[in-house]
Amino acid sequence: MSVLLDDAPLLSVDGLTRFYGPRIGCRDVSFDLYPGEVLAVVGESGSGKTTLLNCLAGRLPLSSGNVSYRMRDGVVCDLALLGEAERRFLMRTDWGFVHQNPADGLRMNVSAGANVGERLMAIGDRHYCNIRGSALSWLERVEVPADRIDDDPRGFSGGMRQRLQIARNLVTAPRLVFMDEPTGGLDVSVQARLLDLIRALVADLGMAALVVTHDLAVARLLSHRIMVMKAGEVVEEGLTDRVLDDPHAPYTQLLVSSILQV
Amino acid sequence: MQPRLEVSDVAKSFTMHLRGGIHIPVVANVSFTLMPGECVVLGGPSGAGKSSILKMIYGNYAVDRGAIRVAGEGDVIDIAIAGPRRVLALRRDTLGYVSQFLRVVPRVASRDLVAEPLVERGASREEALAKADALLCRLNLPERLWHLPPATFSGGEQQRVNIARGFIAGHPLLLLDEPTASLDAKNRDVVIALIEEGKAAGRSFLGIFHDAEMRAAVADREIDVTAFAPGVAA
User: Fold this and answer.
1) Do the Cβ atoms of A246 and B59 come within 8 Å?
2) Could you name the CATH architecture of A11-106+176-259?
3) Comparing C-alpha atoms, which of B204, B187, B198, B206 is closest to residue B98?
């Protein structure tokens, strides 16, 4: 978990607010995310963490506030001002989005190799051998057996589908990855393996990640910083082990004290 | 000479919101310094706040007031007010911590866990693994265990992995929270030697040791934590 200092933020969020009619989705959320940094957003169901994630990733419009992103060329862009085509290009190349349910992030009716290769083609790679070679090496990296490259993910287990989704997202070496409960719904043994994989990949590739999870143990293992949300607002944030070892907000204390010990 | 660590007028309390907002003062007026090459032991009965002081210095516990200045690479950082990124950079380069219990990612081999802090400081993987193996060997951890995750190890074996992970990067300031509690005499002597070598190289140690022999062997001075009891006038 290496962190470089003295560089500019990759993502800057200022006063992000999203209403659903009169109801609050999330309100007045502000933070900076730096290259190589993993930020966990924790809170129970309905706390606004998924709304926040969807607003950041351009999947939901903001009611108010501002999200800016530093492009590869160093230019800082207001995401609301990007055209649809530019935003889609950013999503396909510089960003990744790992869904809780792999079926939402994979194309279930094409092969594992094509799922990974498709993102490479989106950034202009047209050479079949290169694409297949990259796909193979990524399948190996996420521990999907090479002889499954031509199978479609409908025949994969939940853990294998999730690892394939991760490979599909990381093959273009994105600088920012959004993850929505990436280990949710998996057996604990599969979870541990996936956590280890995500941790190693994030560290090796030096990318920034925003991980939404309700699981504080996942947050502790993966993240540098934690933001705790309740009823759409951030109630506490800080260094991950500070927030978990010395929680200040009543709601954070409730979350931490509710963890089951094994 | 500039102190490696300077703790000034630090106070810590907990407010337990789930217990009706009860306020529990832990320590107050904590002030001391630690020089390069020095090993200082925190003394006092259980519950006096020794571990809390280590956790405040490492940044796991927030402080109510005061300053905790650590001389890092080039500049002095006040942990009490430093942001998360600053604290993480300080932990990578300057500040290490050996906790009472090993808490790590499941399924990672012991030698990789031990090598990790050195890789984070920029060493090559081969170099870090070679050093990890040497340390595990020195701490008498059987070689057949090096490639296994420590989850199933005995308490003493886990603690040796923890110690190797703490010492490998040669941090200028290492915090030790009862690192030898579950070790036999032979391995305790290895830890004493590691601390002595560190001191000779100018590194500083701040520790909690319940074992009197261990204390006598490594401590240059002892700080009585009961002097920092809240409510006692400074």
Assistant:
1) no
2) 3-Layer(aba) Sandwich (3.40)
3) B206
